[in-house]
Write a structure and sequence with these properties.
- The structure is a single chain.
- Helices cover about 45% and strands about 10% of the residues.
- By secondary structure, the chain is α/β, with parallel strands linked by helices.
- The strands form four sheets. A six-stranded mixed β-sheet has the order 3-2-1-4-5-6.
């Protein structure tokens, strides 16, 4: 390992250990013997990524000690509200520290002091020596340490990038510079550490006060000068708590550490011990990263036999091989996440572990020539894709099938979808992404997509990435899916869910493909007229709102609305200064303005969410809206609908019902048929519970909800209206 700089990285140990543990709380990792490994895996993954990408010259892991600190002496309730460390985390600490000792990275703690104090002391020493320090943490407390030479480095994850905070970054995030973070926290307190602060003062108010009085001390000395009487009263009442809070949040920069900055130089790992301990916990993907970092060839490193197809002979040979295979893993690389707009960049196949092919279609490398046209590739593969006897597996095959449909190819051999299977096995899981499944079930870390296309505004399309990079990434996807299928098949059987998977969930994939492909037709003229009607209604409501409030304000601003309701009109505050729908429903009985606001919000929401949004979802090639039906979002097994959501189109209000009128048959003579099970859940309940009233209702074809409403409201069943039935 070599360093590119002379920087010191101070890792906030326990904070990042907790973060690693809770990052996988909904999909925790365990060894085959049942030992929890989420925190060990997550922390080591972060540490190795940090060393690889940042190449620090000096590094230390700073930890809290168990002994009470001076803060406990100042305030006996300091950190009193903190929950006990979860058992499945605490049992990982000792093995994690043993693993870390083999990295030869110093682990520093000092009795009577917190990690923050040690970090502050070391950062101060390094600053005085001219050594740049990067504090690895996301803790706001530590931002008070930031100077020209001290920064905070917050590691990212698959969804967000790393963040490096300097002075300007702190100001942008909190509105105050690093030297005022202590003052801000003295006012706002910190619930995680049970630091009281001033009751009712949040970050915005705290910033305003510091902007006005410059420093905390000046504010405390001039409380009577605060313009807002309510805030002034709060400071008067909690002045002593604010002063105490400042003492509690101030980091001690003079911890007696018998350590020199030069003692923190990054050392070579004790690889044998480190690998041995990691293998005990079956963290093979971390082992591979150790070998990679230390430039050591792994004895058990698996060679990948990934081929790129660039000529007709190779393609014909590949097609012949996959036709004979018992199981074929397939994946597409495309230009868009929207399957109806996506163009093929390439396709990958695997019929054996650690091997596979990539068939490129569109790539930027001018020096690499292919004999294959897209027409030849698709003509060669179309019979294979449309042969129902093939057993094709993939991750979210519905997407791949819809992409192929753009090229008039029907994917008929759908056999196994790893995303659907993973959802059945762990419906509570918060990530069904292929790299998450690979890590959890195979202990294998895949190449992140961000390594290829980047993130944010500079993100590339797949056809802008070099062929070599895309080829490995694409075949790895197909390879991992193939391995997951081999893993999932016995797991489905063990959990007694193999029959519903093969007989219900997998056939449903093909049904959903057709539904999404067909889409829904909308009467755009009707929607346009409805938009005009709603906008006219909004203008009328604006006039009424301004008239009854006797002022003009931003109706969409909860803050300005609260000022009108509670300061100008002096209506009673139900939930502090909340202006949510439940508050307005109470207040409408005391003044006409809340009802107008409720009506205004209803029109506004229907316009923005549906009427004006639907046209943006129209596919210009089909003149239809193509929603996505998801099998793997709702843990109950229900389908969900996204982009746009067809399932939450309003039906309970007359205004909402108007929107449904836009869904019409495309051709004259066609009709839309609506079908639904008739209270199927209640029928099942009646059967198993042997509930006589329910059974009687169903046997005599009575409407159970109307009958319930009749009983609840004490009226004849013929008198029950739609709202009463819905309530019942």
């Amino acid at each position: 390992m070599t360093s590119k700089n002379n920087e010191l990285y101070l890792i906030d140990g326990m904070a990042l250990i907790y973060r690693a543990h809770f990052a996988l709380i909904r999909q925790p990792l365990f060894s085959s013997s049942g030992k929890p490994t989420s925190a060990i895996f997550g922390f080591m993954n972060m540490l190795l990524k940090l060393i690889k990408e940042q190449s620090p010259a000096k590094i230390a892991i700073v930890l809290d000690s168990k002994e009470p600190t001076f803060r406990h002496e100042l305030f006996t309730d300091y950190k009193a509200t903190r929950e006990k460390m979860p058992d499945d985390l605490s049992v990982q600490l000792e093995p994690l520290f043993e693993i870390l000792s083999a990295t030869r990275i110093p682990m520093i703690k000092c009795p009577g002091y917190e990690a923050d104090d040690i970090i502050g002391t070391l950062a101060k020493q390094a600053d005085e020596m001219g050594v740049v320090t990067k504090i690895v943490s996301g803790d706001k407390d530590l931002m008070q340490l930031i100077t020209e030479n001290v920064f905070m480095f917050t590691p990212g994850n698959s969804r967000k990038p790393d963040v490096l905070y300097d002075r300007e970054g702190v100001i942008e995030k909190w509105g105050v510079p690093p030297e005022r973070i202590i003052d801000l926290m003295a006012l706002t307190g910190d619930s995680s550490d049970n630091i009281p602060g001033v009751k009712g003062v949040g970050p915005k108010t705290g910033k305003k006060l510091l902007d006005e009085f410059d420093t905390f001390d000046n504010l405390i000395d001039n409380i009577e000068e605060i313009k807002n009487p309510r805030v002034m009263e709060k400071l008067r009442n909690d002045k002593d708590l604010a002063i105490l809070s400042k003492q509690l949040v101030t980091i001690d920069l003079d911890v007696p550490i018998d350590l020199n900055i030069d003692d923190l130089n990054l050392q070579q790992f004790d690889v044998d011990v480190l690998v041995g301990r990691l293998k005990e916990f079956e963290l093979n993907s971390i082992v591979e990263k150790i070998y990679s970092l230390e430039n050591i060839e792994s004895d058990h490193k698996i060679e990948k036999d990934y081929k790129t197809i660039l000529d007709k002979t190779s393609l014909d040979k590949m097609v012949a091989e996959i036709k004979q295979a018992e199981l074929i893993s397939f994946d597409t690389e495309t230009t868009s996440l929207n399957a109806h707009k996506a163009e093929l960049v390439g396709m990958s196949f695997s019929i054996k572990e650690h091997s596979g092919w990539y068939v490129p279609i569109d790539y930027p490398d001018e020096g690499i020539k292919s004999d294959l046209s897209i027409e030849y590739i698709l003509d060669s593969l179309k019979p294979f894709f449309e042969d129902e006897s093939n057993k094709i597996c993939g991750q979210n095959l519905k997407y791949d099938a819809l992409v192929l449909n753009n090229y008039n190819i029907h994917l008929n051999g759908i056999y196994f979808d790893t995303m659907v299977a993973a959802h059945l096995l762990k419906p509570e899981s918060n990530s069904l992404k292929l790299d998450s499944l690979s890590q959890y079930y195979l202990s294998y870390s895949m190449q992140p997509i961000e390594d290829l296309i980047g993130t944010g505004k500079d993100q590339k399309k797949m056809n802008e990435v070099s062929l070599e990079e895309v080829a490995f990434y694409a075949v790895e996807d197909a390879d991992v899916v193939y391995q997951l299928v081999k893993k999932f098949k016995p797991l489905l059987k063990e959990n007694n869910i193999d029959k519903p998977f093969y007989s219900i969930d997998m056939p449903l994939v093909s049904v959903l493909i057709d539904m999404e492909k067909n889409g829904a037709y909308l009467d755009m003229d009707f929607l346009s007229d409805l938009s005009d009607q709603f906008n006219n209604a909004l203008r009328d409501l604006e006039d009424k709102i301004y008239a009854v409030s006797e002022s003009e304000f931003n109706i969409n601003s909860p803050k300005q609305l609260a000022e009108v309701l509670f300061d100008q009109l002096e209506l009673k505050m139900i939930k502090k200064r909340s202006t949510d729908v439940n508050v307005l429903k109470v207040l409408k009985n005391h003044h006409p303005l809340p009802q107008f606001i409720l009506d205004y919000r209803q029109y506004k929401k229907l316009l923005s969410t549906y009427i004006d949004a639907f046209p943006n979802h129209i596919n210009p090639n089909t003149d239809r809206v193509h929603t996505t039906f998801n099998q793997t979002i709702a843990s109950t097994g229900r389908l969900s609908s996204t982009k746009p959501n067809f399932q939450n189109i309003p039906i309970r209000t007359d205004l909402g019902k108007e929107i449904r009128k836009a869904f019409v048959p495309k051709e004259k003579g066609w009709q839309i048929i609506s079908m639904d099970y008739s209270q199927v859940e209640l029928r099942i309940m009646a059967h198993f519970a042997n509930e006589e009233t329910l059974i009687d209702a169903f046997q005599n074809d009575k409407d159970i909800h109307s009958q319930t409403a009749s009983l609840v409201y004490g009226i004849p069943i013929d008198w029950v209206d739609a709202d009463q039935r819905r309530t019942a």
